[in-house]
Amino acid sequence: MTRIYSRLEKILLPFKTLVIIGSYWGDEGKGKIIDLVAPFYDAVARFSGGAGAGHTLITELLRKFIGHLIPCGVAHKIMCFLARGEFFDLARFIAEKADAFRAMDGKLPPIRIDRQSPLWTPWHPIYESYIEYVMGKKKVRTTGKAIGILSGFAKLRISLLVGHLFMDEKDLRALLRILYKVCKPNFDQMIEEGIIRKRDVPGPDKVAKYLLKMAPEIKDDVIDTSWALSNLWKRGKRILLEGAQAIGLDPQWGTYPYVTSGNCTAAGAALGTGLPPEATTNIMAVFKILPTRVGAGPFPSEVWDRDKAERWAEKHPELFEEGRTRNRFLEKKLAKINAGTATPAELCQYFMVLGDERGATTGRGRSIGLPDLQWLRYMIRINKPKFLALTRFDMLSGVRSIQVVTGYKLDGRRLKPDEMPEPWRLGEVEVITQTWRCWSEDISGCDSFDELPEGAQRFIKRLEKALGVPIVLVGTGAERDAVIVRPTA
Ligand code: IMP
Prior knowledge:
Blueprint: H1 2-12, E1 17-22, H2 30-37, E2 43-46, E3 55-58, E4 64-67, E5 79-82, H3 90-103, E6 111-114, H4 123-135, H5 147-156, H6 169-192, H7 204-214, E7 222-223, H8 225-234, E8 239-242, H9 267-273, E9 283-288, E10 292-293, H10 306-315, H11 324-339, H12 344-354, E11 367-368, H13 373-383, E12 387-391, E13 401-410, E14 413-414, H14 423-426, E15 430-437, H15 454-467, E16 471-475, E17 483-485
Parallel strand pairs: 1-8, 1-9, 2-5, 2-8, 5-6, 6-7, 9-12, 12-16
Antiparallel strand pairs: 3-4, 10-11, 13-14, 13-15, 16-17
The chain binds inosinic acid.
Inosinic acid binds next to α5.
């Protein structure tokens, strides 16, 4: 790691703040990148998302910790903030903090929570399931953590906020009664239609009791995070701003309505932390070589079919386990891919297994897409990243060539290089592709760009030229140190 850190230092030192965002539809490996850059920062703030997102971290003690709400930086013991742009679920936070405590042998850094973040109640998931039920076939297929409801109630100005837990109890109860009254007609409808039972819906008193019982556990950590972050920034401290999900899932810039509800673009960093926009202009966008998507919604470069991909992975867990079965499967499929006889299903299956592209908790497969330059140019237009971090580049090792999406056509017209159609028409675009040669060598042991095989170097340079942004990090394998740093790019 020493060599990696000394190269990284050259890139990161001039940037006192760094915003990390995702480029496609999430699961790009932001966690790994944050884990890598965190040692160069004094604090890390999650500015978006909520319990729906997930990242697996390996701590110094080599223990596994799966985080949802707590920023990835926690493993490096730098000060953590759950900023105002993050939706807060108290019970999950307490459980997650206990897990982190165990994984780090009690050596947790301070973890501060914003006093004005929207607060989850047991009514939120019921309301979310109602909306999904009403949407029927058009449902979003959310993560079930009520992110949309947390955001929606906040926008309707009826949400409970974290700090409300510490106001006069009678005021808190009054707020809960308002929220309950707004939700109740829908709950009654659900009971009438037999979707839930009456006893599934707790009344305001029960919810107050439930929340107030847990509140003391966080009381000392609930603050105005914007004030604390702003002070750190003014004192010249270095702050990492951790995004959640990715632009494709942003409510305004993603594929609405098949999106999450937090701000996933770089603009969300200022909105979610209260730091001024000028403090959030150093942006690193993370993209994996082959995009993936879970849940519903358009995915222009998708190789196969979302539902089928999800179910196929669920049905074949044995292929995702290290060993002979997996190796034989991969060998056979790769031979077909290189002979040009693989079907889209086989192409997707090969990459799903190779990259273990499935949800950590659900086991559902993540549907695979081709590298999509049109989408990435759009992402660059919206976020203007200074750097790109390319993850899972090793997935193309051994593949003779891959189709790269270089443009979209709609109604017979080729779209401008960074143009994006309405999301409801994105499913209709015809993708324009080019065949890009890959390389046959294993790149997992490569330590620098120069050590990469010539085909891999060419691929990266070609990507960089097409996107106009330097690729400074290249992931070459699953291990923590399997990454190439390119300080001079
Ligand atoms: P929600 O965030 O639970 O409302 O889910 C909305 C959409 O975003 C669904 O299609 C989810 O599958 C997707 N989504 C939410 N969080 C993640 C994530 O961390 N990775 C990938 N997809 C996500």
